[in-house]
Amino acid sequence: MKLEPAVRDQLLATVPSLRAFAISLCGNIDRADDLVQETLLRAIAHIDSFEPGTNMPAWLFTILRNLFRSEYRKRRREVEDADGDYTASLKSAPEQLDKIETIELQRALEKLTTDQREALILVGASGFSYEDAARIANCPVGTIKSRVNRARMRVADLLNITSVDDFGPDRPTRAVMSGT
Fold first, then answer.
1. Which residue in 126, 165, 171, 174 has a CA-CA distance of 20 to 30 Å to 71?
2. Taking the model in full, what pTM does it have?
3. Any idea where the domains of the chain sit in the sequence?
């Protein structure tokens, strides 16, 4: 099937966001790449069901989310590493603060419910409006807003964030950077 150049460009432009969303959902880069590939294959196979003029990224994110949920149901019978001990044993210890913070954030996100994590990633990381996120998640806008708020509060609590000053470099580094 030959795609129109504009449609192809829209699909390709969404790939990085789809990949980030897929990684956040499954926590495994290889699995995420497979999920994105399957999403694109399904989208191309069913491109005739896409309504021109509507939100292509939202349509693709919905396909990806549905594929993930279907795959998740199938994989429930597999041995899970819920506490991450096995996974942690396969990784080398981080050497830089950024890596440590990324891991802390990833662990905090893993402690959220699937619905809260999904809502936070859609709105906070992928930049979707609450309305578009609600369409992707197939729920009311108020539910998305509630999930995002609860997710933000839970992540802040897990990361011991109490104010805006808790973001960025620590106090000694800020002092060095400001010259005081």
1. 126
2. 0.53
3. 1-77, 91-180
